[in-house]
Design the sequence.
């Protein structure tokens, strides 16, 4: 992984020993395997003294994102404040950190992970099998924007190219993992899994999203188990052809190593939301049973209980200019018949209630076990996406 590049800044006639001592003091903040000291093309500007403002500006690029690090000594904070104000005025994204605040270590590490996650997306491909579902009126992204902003290529694959019936053998681990259902239904779901896996291999895909209702009408089965198992295997797999969710799933997987759960917002109030969907990755659940797909009553779907007390909610918009990030607390796992099979109730902050009620970016959101807000927020800052 690529190291972060840090530049030390001081007044023009500063003694060389000032820089040597500063490097020693920064060992707690900068892990040597993650940060290197440089004279140009920096990601991090470390202010050692006042009078370093002009030197700092020489290292700044218009579309960059920077960590500014300062302390309460030698007018360091004063210099950083002046540069931060200049950056804000010139629309250059930055965060000012206190060198002596323990939380700064967490942010530097998160910056390292976010920068490398974004870099790793370049050259990846996802498959769009079928077309985005017709009701996703606000969840399609122009493939040119995805390629330009993230370096990810969209590969369009018609359902006519996907041979489901022709698969005679099913991976033994698929059958054994979903052993609690009627064998014929599991085998049919397994054929969908094998057919999607073949497309992933043939096109060298890192992820896949499917227009699932076309599959149901053609084969009388669902993709729910196949998508759950693929996500569990580490291949982000979404449904309904939702491209906003697909892009978010790829980013989350690279950033925190987890394939998230794509959910419907089944209901929202100022303090709570109820989320649900039939394709929850089984490894994110404490346990599960198999039920029919909610909307059609056909095939098999996952009905489980989320294995988390706290989750992070994430969603990007359809121009990759905005994102929603928030943490929430799991408070219930209802079993309502009138919603998708895996269901969770979350306690949310009232400001997030306002978002869901008045300013949502779309229906589907991604659920990640644990609190990963810092890493995601830094990734969005690097990508120059507004947090809503």
Sequence:
């Amino acid at each position: 992984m690529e190291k972060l590049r840090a530049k030390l800044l001081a007044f023009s006639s500063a003694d060389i020993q000032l820089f040597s001592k500063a490097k020693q003091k920064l060992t707690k903040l900068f892990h040597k395997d993650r940060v290197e000291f440089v004279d140009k093309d920096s990601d991090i500007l470390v202010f050692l003294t006042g009078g370093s403002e002009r030197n700092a500006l020489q290292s700044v690029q218009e579309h960059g994102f920077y960590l500014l690090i300062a302390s309460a000594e030698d007018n360091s904070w004063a210099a950083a404040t002046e540069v931060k104000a200049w950056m804000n005025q010139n629309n250059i994204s930055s965060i000012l950190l206190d060198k002596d605040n323990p939380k700064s270590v967490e942010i530097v590490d998160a910056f390292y992970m976010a920068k490398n996650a974004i870099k790793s997306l370049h050259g990846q491909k996802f498959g769009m099998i079928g077309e985005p579902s017709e009701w996703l009126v606000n969840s399609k992204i122009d493939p040119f924007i995805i390629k330009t902003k993230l370096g990810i290529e969209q590969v369009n694959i018609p359902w006519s190219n996907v041979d489901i019936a022709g698969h005679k053998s099913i991976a033994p681990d698929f059958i054994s993992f979903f052993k609690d259902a009627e064998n014929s239904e599991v085998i049919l779901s397994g054929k969908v899994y094998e057919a999607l896996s073949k497309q992933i291999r043939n096109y060298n895909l890192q992820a896949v999203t499917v227009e699932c209702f076309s599959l149901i009408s053609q084969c009388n089965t669902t993709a729910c188990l196949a998508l759950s198992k693929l996500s569990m295997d580490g291949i982000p797999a979404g449904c309904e052809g939702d491209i906003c969710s697909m892009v978010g799933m790829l980013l989350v997987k690279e950033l925190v190593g987890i394939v998230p759960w794509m959910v419907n917002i089944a209901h929202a109030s100022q303090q709570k939301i109820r989320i649900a969907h039939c394709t929850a990755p089984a490894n994110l659940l404490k346990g599960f049973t198999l039920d029919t797909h909610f909307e059609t009553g056909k095939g098999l779907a996952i009905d489980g209980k989320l294995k988390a007390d706290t989750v992070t909610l994430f969603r990007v918009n359809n121009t990759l200019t905005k994102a929603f990030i928030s943490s929430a607390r799991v408070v219930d796992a209802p079993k309502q018949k009138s919603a998708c099979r895996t269901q969770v109730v979350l306690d949310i902050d009232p400001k997030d209630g306002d978002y869901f009620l008045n300013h949502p970016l779309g229906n589907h959101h991604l659920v990640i076990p644990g609190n990963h807000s810092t890493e995601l927020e830094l990734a969005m800052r690097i990508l120059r996406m507004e947090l809503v």
